[in-house]
Amino acid sequence: MIDPRPANGTDGEDLRVTGAKAATIVAGHLAGLAARPVWQPVPAAERAWLTDQQLPEAGRALDDLLEDARTHVLPHPMGNGHPRFFGWVNSPPNPAGVLVEPLAAAFNPSCAGGDHAGPHLERAVVRWLAELVAFPHPPGGGLLTSGASMATVICLAAARQRAALADGWDAREEGLSGRPPMVLYVTEEGHSCLHKAAQLLGLGARHVRAVPVDAAYRMDVGALRAMVAEDLAAGLRPFCVAGSAGTVNSGAVDPLGEIADVAAEHGLWFHVDGAYGALGILADGAAPHYAGLDRADSLALDPHKWLGVPVGCGCALLRDPGAARAAFSLVPSYLIDDNAGELGWFAEYGPEQTRPFRALKTWATMSHLGRSGITSLVNHTAGLARRLAAMVEESADFELLAPVTTSITAFRYRPHPGDGLDTLNRAIPGAVQARGNAFLTGTRLGGSDALRACFLHPDTTEHDLAVLLDEIRLAAKTLRT
Ligand SMILES: Cc1ncc(COP(=O)(O)O)c(C=O)c1O
């Protein structure tokens, strides 16, 4: 006998009524964020509520769940919706992206492939992203991912297989053992996801070269040349160089054109990590910094960073999509689709099989902003970073640590010369965060502990910059007493 229909089956009326309430709660949450502390620690009782609860035996009503989410989840944000959140690289969600998230969930496709709205919209969105940053985009030359970490795995796997095939063997078939180690070049400022990808792909952490940087934290291309020559002489197999278009520490953009020259000379795959900063090419006067981006074989670009697409959404763009397909395509018999067309399924270009409908929120966000809205968001936030740099330079108690190229300002609090500044600057982000009036994070830059403020929020104002510097001063006082 079949069990009766489950009590939690779709009830359109219940969802309509509760969904309307949810929409009001969501709008109220976003509208109210700026008036609340940027971030506060989750109180112990709330943490216990969130962590320790048990799966209920009987299913609960939608209305109850909404009430729990309203009272126990929404009051404890990470902070990145607030205009004075300057931490890491986390943007506020674009309202159009928020609007369509429930639609994507209701639609609930797998965007592995097939003939439904998801994959078709993904083609358009990938093309839009490539066009926005002037990356040469052959039809189907990219796919959306969970974020740049996964995009990087895809691009480096494509590079690895291309190098192996060029040398007359197949890395997928044979594995890497017994072959000359493949070497990846990234700068000392390259993102950790490049190292993780290399490790995951079996290249070995010791075969990732940390190329030194110049005073502006950009790749020293002379050093890159020397390292490649040394590795070739030692019988290794240089296969890929990864430049950064916007490092996470200071927003530096590597000399991409010069790197492209070295890649062309040695037949290296040229990857660009533009996860955060590729969109910076749109800022007034910024294009010369990005010269050479259009010569890359692959580009990682995160719509969930500067664009504000709700997390998670990354993108891998490929000059030759066939290279990613050669690295990943494996179509089991139950998935053969005679109508898939020349490009096949998205699942053939990366490790994910079932893929969420990331294209809808990306399409909505980009359409809502339009090209001019995206450009003014980039200009506004890049301008804030430059203004903060100027304020830092005008203040006797602050020191600028790097030129501003994108929308990150790297600096340091220096109330006095001499010792103790590393300890002080390491403690400042936590102390600022705890006060709740601003949120910034720290890093190490050029051997020193540094503060970095990343601007992504369209509502941040110049006044917020003054608040940030004052908050740092006040927080530092609490640390010294
Ligand atoms: C420059 C850069 N590259 C790569 C990444 C990794 O991106 P994701 O967190 O989307 O995987 C980040 C994340 O902050 C980043 O800033």
Automatic annotation (TrEMBL):
Its cofactor is pyridoxal 5'-phosphate. Keywords: Decarboxylase, Lyase, Pyridoxal phosphate. It comes from the Bacteria. One of its GO terms (biological process) is amino acid metabolic process. GO terms for molecular function: aromatic-L-amino-acid decarboxylase activity; pyridoxal phosphate binding. Pfam families: Pyridoxal_deC (PF00282). The modification N6-(pyridoxal phosphate)lysine is found at K305. InterPro entries: Aromatic_deC, PyrdxlP-dep_de-COase, PyrdxlP-dep_Trfase, PyrdxlP-dep_Trfase_major. Belongs to the group II decarboxylase family. This is Amino acid decarboxylase. It comes from Nonomuraea turkmeniaca.
